[in-house]
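Hello,

Following up on my earlier ticket. Below are the two sequence lines again, exactly as submitted.
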Amino acid sequence: MSRDWPLWEVFIRAKGGLSHKHVGSVHAPDATLAVRHARDTYTRRMEGVSIWAVRSTDIVASDPAQNGPMFEPAESKVYRHPTFYVVPDNVTHI
Amino acid sequence: MYTTELQKSDPGARAVEPADLVEAFEARVAADEFIEPKDWMPEAYRKTLIRQISQHAHSEIVGMLPEGNWITRAPSLRRKAVLLAKVQDEGGHGLYLYSAAETLGASREEMIDALHSGRAKYSTIFNYPTLTWADIGAIGWLVDGAAIMNQVPLQRTSYGPYARAMVKVCKEESFHQRQGYEIMMVLSAGTAEQKAMAQDALNRWWWPSIMMFGPPDDNSPNSAQSMRWRIKRDSNDDLRQKFIDVTVAQAEAIGLTLPDPDLVWNEARGHYDYGAIDWEEFFAVVRGEGPCAKERITARRKAWDDGAWVREAADAHEAKQRAARRAA
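Thanks for your patience. The regenerated structure is below:
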C-alpha cells in the first residue's frame, strides 16, 4: 500500500472563453493543497485563469479495449455530416 | 534529459503475451500512433518506459542541486531571480515526469525511495561539481542545450503522457539555455579574469555534456528495441553530432574555444569531426564514482527528511478538516 498522497487530475482554463483542459496531475492531501500544487506545477508562466482539480479515482473512463463496440455505431452514420448531401452548384448559402 | 539507458539489464523476462495484442500494438506504434495509459502494452514496453521516465525525472530533481548551490551567490538580483526560476522549473519538470511514470503503474513513493536509496540512476552530468559562477553559465548553455537536443524528438515519443510532458518541458527549457549562454557571453566580454573563468567552465563541462547523449550506438544495447517502439526517435550518436555542429558557432561567437583539438569541419560529411570520448570516465560516473555522487543523494535525502514536518502537518490538517466535516 502506497503512502503517497491521493492523486488529483488537473484541468486548466487557458483564458476566458475556452474550456478547461487536462494538463497533468499532482499529489496532495486535500483539495486546497491540490489547487495550490497545481498552480505551482502547471501555471508558472500565466498558463491559466482557472484551475480544476479532481480526485483521479473519481474519474470514470471508457475502456480502450472496447473502442470498437463503443464508437463503431457512429462510424456508419456519415449522413450526420453535411458533406453527405449533394447540393447543386448554383445553390448557395446552404 | 537524461534519457539514455543507464541500466543495461534485460528489461524483464518475456512472459508469453497474446500474439494478437502484441501484433496490434506493434502495428499502432509503427503507424506513429500514441499509446495511452489504459491501452494494452507489452510488459517490456511498460518497464522500459517506467525506467526511462523515472530516470529522467530523477535527473531533473537531482539537477536542481548543482545550480541550487549558487542561488545565494548569484552576482546580482536579476541573476538570482533568473536562477531561482530555472531551478523551480527543473523541479516542475521532475513532477511532470513522475506523473507520467505513475500512469504506467509506478508509485511516487517507490520512485523517490529508489532515488534516495541509491538504486535508481540519474544523469551522470549532475555528479560533477559547480566550482564557479561560470559553471552556471556552462550548465545552462551546454547541459540544457544537450537536454533540448535530446528532448525535442521525445515530444513525438510513442507514449502519450511522456510525449505531452516533453512538450511542456521543451517550451520551458529554451529560456534555461539562453540564460546560461548570456552568462557566458557577459563573462567572455568582461575582464581577462572573467573570460578565463568562462573558458575554464567550458573546458570542464564540454566533455561531460557530449557524454550526456549516452554511449555510442554500437555500445547501446537497448537502443534498437527503443527505436522500434518509437520510445526513442534518434540515435545517441546522431543527436551528439547535431549538438556539436550547432555549438561550435555559438562558442566562436563569444570568443570561447571548445576544448577538443581534434574538432574540425569535415566537408565531405557535412559535420564536425571530434576527438575520442573517454567512455571509461562515463561508465565510472554511471557506476556512482562521479565526484559528487554521494553528496547529491545525501542532499536529496536531507531535503526529504527536513521537509517531513510539512508533509505531516498537511496530513494532520486534512485529518482535522475531515473530522470536522463528519461532525457537522
